[in-house]
Amino acid sequence: MNYSLFDFLQLIGSLGIFIFGMKIFSEGLQKIAGHRLKSILSGMTRNRATGVLTGFGTTAITQSSTTTTVMTVSFVNAGLLTFVQSTGVIMGANIGTTITAWMVSLFGFKFQITPIAVAVIGLFFAFLFSSNNRLRNIAEAMVGFGILFIGLDFIKGAVPDINNNPEMFAVLDGFTEYGYLSLILFVFVGTLLTLLTQSSSAATAITLVMLFEGWVSFPIAAAMILGENIGTTVTANIAALVGNVHAKRAARFHFFFNIIGVIWMMLIMYPMLHLMDLALQLATDTNVSVMAGEVESRSNATLALSLFHTTFNVLNVVLLFAFVPHLVRFVEYIQPDRGGEDEEFHLRYISAGVMTSPGLALAQAQKEVQQFAGVTLKMHQAVSELLFDPDIKFEKQLKRIHKYEEATDQLEIEISDFLVRVSERTNLEHSTTERIRFMQTMINDMERIADIYYQVSKLAERMKESKSSWPDDAKSDLAEMMAALQKAIEFMHASVSRAPGQVDMAKAVELEDSVDKLRDKFRDTHYTRLERGDYSPRAGVIFIDVLNRLERIGDHVLNVNESASGHRLKAMRIVGSKRPT
Q1: In this structure, what CATH number is given to the domain that contains residue 499?
Q2: Can you give the residue range of the structural domain that contains 275?
Q3: pTM
């Protein structure tokens, strides 16, 4: 045996070049698609049939079923897709991933594409430095395409030659002599290979090279392909570990869907393989059987394996399509929705890192901002109960408000960190950069709203400790102020879920003005009560302090609405003239 450690490192390096090329190719295609990826995934999933087409199309664009399934899990986690809608996308992604096998089989083994790949890199490399975003993204995709096939050519050259390394082949051949048990064994090998490479495309390419070089037979390679279908589900399940229950269900569905497919295919494995062999012989007008493993049939064997890969995934979708509702109920049974208040105010929608497409990442961030606004609304209601409900358990309510305030601090840090990581990506469009800045402004203002509500609760605590009280008309004034503020916060909560330009700023300004007018009105009535001696100076000072703080909340609410609308000049005006320090 003359295969050294250096030769093995060359094989690993070749695989690295292939995976790197696939990554660059995939990311370039996703950037070209841009915001259309979101519209494809969220707009074409009205039913399972369109979901399958969506999954197929998205995987064709991204050239990675792993990317599509992880993206789908993230979308389910972000509430952009429902669990049921995601099932069709996942099934379609399984079909879409077979395009890679066809591309490698046709261009990697049937033609000498390496010189063309190098020429493609030479043609598009200069455009990587273009100021035109679209042209630069196209160049990135084409350079990645070239690197991908250069890596494939290197893999073919780095794989040990059977004639010069018979000992290695003998070891491998020893595992193929157990008939059907060997097929089961290599299903696990294919799964492990996908886990190691973290790419079903890379695992498929390695399997095709092994088949082409004669290291494995056609049936063994087909078993590895089935295992790779299982292995590709693991990444999505890992991504779902920190997701919500719906994301976990989507990932579990993908796993069980592929497992069921592998089980029924293993039952008819040999008849199916003979059918693929016959179909290829008819298509290529040759009598050479790929099942025999002859040297002259190896390039055709890669085509037969690609045909098997596609046929398996298409048949699995067709056969299980009607049983999806039953599989959904099974997944819901093993992954129940336990709910729980303890998870309510953690990040729920950002769960899989920064997505390749900034537009998709911002869609996740917007859902978190909407959750943030929901916390401020809950905080408003809790403070109202603290101020006006005589039967409230005061100490318990204070702790509840403090918990909300701590939650908003954490939400601001984590959302801001995510937005910073998105903004660090190169070549962001100006509109995307602006949207990130506005989101940062929104979460900062909402965190200040929570701080002020917490301060109001502490003022209420001082009132209780000093055994002071307000007369009924003062309480009535504050109740009216809180009611006006609730309308403003409810409007803010709706605004942050809308796209820029869709916020009714006239209504937002009207709500803020009503808060200002009430503050001015109740400030006058406060001084009148103070002059009449209706309450003690301490109670009066706390009343006017609460009133002013509530008015400042109204200012911050208007800031959030203006940032949500995307009007920088208005937001800057409010910051400069009204925002408290």
Answers
A1: 1.20.58.220
A2: 5-334
A3: 0.58
